[in-house]
Amino acid sequence: MIQQSSTSAAQAGGVAAPPPTGTVRLTINGQQHTLQIAPWTTLLDALREYVHLTGTKKGCDHGQCGACTVLVNGKRINSCLSLAVMHEDHDITTIEGLGSQENLHPLQQAFIDHDAFQCGYCTPGQICSAQGLINEGRAHTEEEIKEHMSGNLCRCGAYAGILNAVKEVVDAKSSEPRR
Amino acid sequence: MNPFTYSSATAVEDAVRDNASHEGAAYIGGGTNILDLMKENVARPTHLVGLNKLPLTAIEPTPEGGLRLGALATNADTAWNEEVKRRYPLLNQAILAGASPQLRNMATNGGNLMQRTRCYYFYDTATPCNKREPGSGCGAIGGFNRIHAILGASEQCIATHPSDMCIALAALAATVRVSGPNGERTIPFEDFHRLPGNTPERDNNLEPGELITGLDLPAKGFEKNFSYLKLRDRNSYAFALVSVAAALELDGDTIKDARLALGGVAHKPWRDQEAENLLKGQPATPETFARAAAKVVESAKGYGSNNFKIELARRAIVRALKQAAEGSQHASDVFLNSNP
Q1: Fewest CB within a 10 Å sphere: which of A177, B70, B139, B235?
Q2: What is the ipTM, given to two decimal places?
Q3: Strand A22-28 versus strand A31-37 pairing type
Q4: B8, A40: Cβ pair inside 8 Å?
């Protein structure tokens, strides 16, 4: 027999009992979501598999590539290295919360204008990370932006375009009159 | 990840009690290392005690004139804290040399001390590792050991401690505050982490169930003459091959006080007080720095692919001490961590 049904495999191999789920309430892009999920569900998996916001990408799943970057209370984090249950009182923003097809976020427009992607897989993470960088307000020069974007890898190598896109929006922000 | 239960604590005593009441429990702060280890099946806790609601995020002055860093303050909030930048720029610089902005926004100060080695063999459950599975052997000795220890290693383990922040904390002689089933105590930073010896599975001297609640920095911050020099395969977002935290107190050209600690070279942040003593009272010259550097690497031992680290460490120490003496590094430009 080549294949066993999953039921008989579970019986034969002593696989652990089905996961105990619990209720986790998340606020994502301003909307409340009540999820029944196991405690080991990462924030990334909760977003993608349970809320079906698939803009946030799973790249390495180990905090090395930055594709899963989202904003929590305005700060950028790797959603793959955080449990959903740790974020019940937080405001979570994903790429879907930054802009829409009808109304692009300035970073989205800048990424298009500067050819800041080829395959696009890292782009949502790059843009959320760049928004986090802008919120932090510490990176202004090209060198600073490079260092502060170093947690986001792009295997197509669109770094030059990404740098130009982020720089354009950073410059526009810093020339805005302060209120 | 293996199945586990999760609870969130709102008070330190509750966290300690909850941890003690679950066999195989672990604390989780930012989670950036333990969740990674759980995904790799290296860590298999049965219960996680969530710490991020504990009231331990403050950074505030101590009665002794120093600064207390809450264990749950993030690495980013610590590095960019105004008092840290002004009084302990060496710490600011070391923190910002590590990880990425995203990870620093998640990782906590307590968790930074508790992170485990990035030894490939420790992470790879298909290979032997005395740290992961005591008695199974060491894949790194005789294996590919480019990132491994040259100081204080044992025949059981040549893993290194991966932190940058901890190298500055060692140089600054911080104190670790902990709370556990038997109450509270403090641990001098140098006694917190361990050398591998015959028990490489133990990274530190915490007793079972103990929880880090804070880090106390002494009043002296060496804010004028310091350097955190980190050498690595790429100039951002990589672990140190060798790093040096150097701090000097100068009286004219004479060194009044000195601190010297290295990262990437040992199982713990490697502070060398004998080398510090060779600096004290001496003129701040390349010759003095060279004598201290020679002292540090005197007992160094390579394991094949990491032999280069001995000379790299010697030169890095001289360069870091020179930078410190010149006062050429400042908190305002440190996050670029450029190596002049």
Answers
A1: A177
A2: 0.95
A3: antiparallel
A4: no
